[in-house]
Amino acid sequence: MTSLRSVQKMVAARAMLGETLVVGADDPSPVAGAILRSLRVNRDPRGTLTELLRADWGDVCGPEMPFAQVYASVTVPGIARDEDRWHVHERQTDRFLCLAGRIVVAVADARPDSPTQGRLLLADMAAASDAPAPYMVAVPPGALHGFVALGETPALLLNLPTRLYDASDERRVEIDGSGVVFPDGTPFSWQAVRAALG
């Protein structure tokens, strides 16, 4: 049963976050090139099996988006990876999956030639007790991005980037002064995300 308090909190979050907040692959992405890819969980009496990346998923894999490596990171609840800075890659696409816990991935479009320049995507990804979150987020090159772990348990993020790690391809951009704002005009901060969704 949903409590009145949780409904009121979601209404307040939607008022602040508007169309930036997505909770599933069926929600439209407000950022051009940021792809929300639905995952299918196969359940039977033994447990579950979920395919995470396939070569025939042309929207997130193929000649323009090859597989290069995989890594996992565990983040304790309440922590944002780089509280005060965005990550950005010039050539790499990140493909994020939440295997355990809950993360909110933020993608801000600061690309000057993008049709969605200035738009923000907040992908709320919560894993089930027996399966990963039901969708993947692909972050295009040039888009500012980061994530925060929310909930009661550590979050396990899996990334399937399109390139091997190359420090020269990655840079950081200060959140303050980046010009990223929520739809209501409030400057972006991880504390605001925690307050709205935590």
Number of domains: 1
Indicate the CATH architecture.
Sandwich
Largest sheet: 5 strands, antiparallel
Mean pLDDT: 93
| Span between termini | 19 Å
- What characteristic shape results from the CA principal axes? globular
Low-confidence stretches: none
Alpha-beta classification: mainly beta
So what's the CATH class? Mainly Beta
Gyration radius from CA atoms, angstroms? 16 Å
Q: Helix count, per DSSP?
A: 2
Helical amount among residues, as a percent range? 10-25%
Strands of the largest sheet, in order across it?
Answer: 2-10-7-12-5
Q: What letter string, H or E per element, gives the SSE order?
A: HEEEEEEEEEEEEEH
Note the beta-strand portion.
25-35%
Number of strands: 13
Q: Would you give the CATH topology? A: Jelly Rolls
CATH superfamily name? Jelly Rolls
Question: Could you please describe the fold and organization of this structure?
Answer:
The chain is mainly beta and 198 residues long. Helices cover 11% and strands 34% of the residues. The chain is built from two helices and 13 strands, in the order αβββββββββββββα. The protein has a five-stranded antiparallel sheet with strand order 2-10-7-12-5, with no helix packed on it. It has a four-stranded mixed sheet with strand order 1-9-8-11, covered by helices on one side. Strands 3-4 form a two-stranded antiparallel sheet. The chain is globular. It starts with a helix and ends with a helix. The mean pLDDT is 93.
